[in-house]
Amino acid sequence: MTKLDSIGASLITITQPFIDPRDKSPYSKLIVNIFSILAEFEIDLIRERIKAGLESARRRNAAIGALKGLSDKNKKRARLCAYYFKEGELKVKDICKEVGVSRATYSKYLEHEGLKDTIRPYKKKKTSKKT
């Protein structure tokens, strides 16, 4: 709130009309400050709970964070990406569209299948020339 006030901006809440920082009365300043202190207090409590939870998990030797590797569904997608890659008939954007993944995920899947450093053989479709 101090930063907003220093640049001349103000925050107006629609759901709590009794909080109006544009009003320079002492009551309005008091309410705004109380709410900002409570919000900061809540953020600090959340940080402490997260820290305590992580410490507890470490003491129990529990896994922290996302699981490593791919799910069965994503392993199938990785194999499909590798198949299309080896086949060489489709462009990368077409493979991504067909499998339903982004380019970044496509690259990760190829890396998972051991094809990351491979040069992709792209077979250009033959077109008949009309002379």
Q: What labels describe this entry?
A:
single chain; mainly alpha; 5 helices; about 55% helix; elongated
Task: Summarize the structure in words.
This protein is mainly alpha-helical. It has 2 domains: 2-59, no CATH class; 72-112. The protein contains 5 helices and no strands. The chain has helices at residues 2-6, 26-59, 72-87, 92-99, 103-112. The mean pLDDT is 81.
Write the layout of secondary structure elements.
Elements: H1 2-6, H2 26-59, H3 72-87, H4 92-99, H5 103-112
Helix pairs in contact: 3-4, 3-5
Sketch the topology as an H/E string, one letter per element: HHHHH
**Beta-strand proportion:** under 5%
Oligomer: single chain
Output the radius of gyration.
Answer: 28 Å
Distance between the termini: 74 Å
Task: Describe the global form.
Answer: elongated
Give a quick summary of the entry.
It contains five helices and no strands.
